[in-house]
Write a structure and sequence with these properties.
Layout: E1 6-7, E2 10-11, H1 18-30, E3 36-42, H2 52-58, E4 62-68, H3 75-88, E5 92-94, H4 101-123, E6 132-137, H5 143-151, E7 169-173, E8 177-181, H6 193-201, H7 207-210, H8 212-226, H9 228-234, H10 244-254, H11 266-278
Parallel strand pairs: 3-4, 3-6, 4-5, 6-8
Antiparallel strand pairs: 1-2, 7-8
């Protein structure tokens, strides 16, 4: 459910389904059972896709932050974010959860994080138990996709919509770790309408909350302002690039998405456009620049 509270050009957006409130409470209990937390975010929104509630819940536990869908993010901004987080002392990786490289990238970092725990057991001549890992993150950042890649199976249910995983699930990882998948925990309140739109673009908020047409028009406006050449190449540079509404109408007309009277069904056109953006067909964008020094 979305609620609006006008404040200038900004609106506060609340979207906190009941199952997510339960998931957050359960997450606090499950976190007590694990040794290392793998926090998954989206590389296109490195800060906004990180839920402060998750950080509060896990407290001082060892943490590795994984920025998924790096192949959809702007590579120059990814390099800038990498430098920023290194300066902050944050252990992190930019990757693609569905890539063959994910496992080889992640496990060496996990080994380093659990090493002190293993050594404490061995110092007491106790055989170390399998360390327990937890994957946490907002909806649709790719947690189940990552687990499928790590365990080389399709055990977890994966779908292109937020909130598919509804309960914590333990799986065995390479006979070395116990790995827990958890339901996505959404921000309880999004202060800015701009942030809600950007979370919709990456799929963490369902299109129906703000409306597919509204989200698609805002995305097109962003691309027109940041990278108009991408749209010119995607559409047809020879006929120019119109405004966002005209682009949606052109998409709908070309694909026969017409309603009564031959008018374009912009909602269908918007859904088509958002889907193709999320598949990487409209270019690579990072919607947050790294903070300036001192911020």
């Amino acid at each position: 459910m979305a609620k609006s509270n006008a404040s200038g050009d900004e609106r506060a957006v609340s979207w906190y389904p009941g199952h997510m409130l339960k998931a957050q409470k359960r997450l606090a209990e499950d976190a007590k059972q694990v040794d290392v937390v793998l926090e998954l975010r989206d590389a296109r929104l490195p800060l906004l896709s990180g839920n402060p509630e998750i950080q509060r819940i896990i407290g001082p536990k060892a943490r590795l932050v994984l920025f998924n869908k790096a192949s959809l993010a702007d590579p120059q901004r990814t390099a800038a974010w990498t430098r920023y987080f290194a300066a902050q002392g944050l252990r992190c990786l930019f990757l693609d959860a569905d890539s063959q490289k994910a496992l080889n990238l992640i496990l060496p970092h996990v080994d380093a994080l659990v090493a002190p725990l293993v050594e404490r057991y061995r110092a007491r001549d106790i055989r170390p138990p399998q360390p327990r890992l937890m994957i946490v993150g907002m909806p649709n950042v790719g947690k189940s996709t990552l687990i499928n890649r790590l365990i080389h199976s399709h055990r977890q249910k994966v779908a292109p919509m937020p909130g598919v995983t509804r309960q914590a699930v333990w799986v065995n990882l390479k006979q070395r770790y116990q790995l827990m998948d958890t339901p996505g925990v959404m921000l309880p309140r999004i202060a800015r309408e701009e942030d809600a739109l950007r979370l919709t673009w990456i799929g963490s908020i369902k299109d129906t909350i703000l409306g597919a047409e509204r989200a698609a028009l805002a995305l097109l406006q962003y691309i027109l302002s940041e990278a108009p050449a991408d749209l010119a190449q995607w559409m047809d540079a020879s006929i120019g690039v119109p405004g966002p509404a005209d682009i949606l109408d052109r998409v709908g007309t070309q694909r026969g998405m017409l309603g009564p009277g031959g008018n374009v069904n912009r909602n269908l056109a918007a859904e088509w456009l958002l889907h193709h953006y999320r598949d990487g067909q409209l270019g690579r964008y990072t919607f947050e620049p790294p903070p300036e020094r001192g911020q």
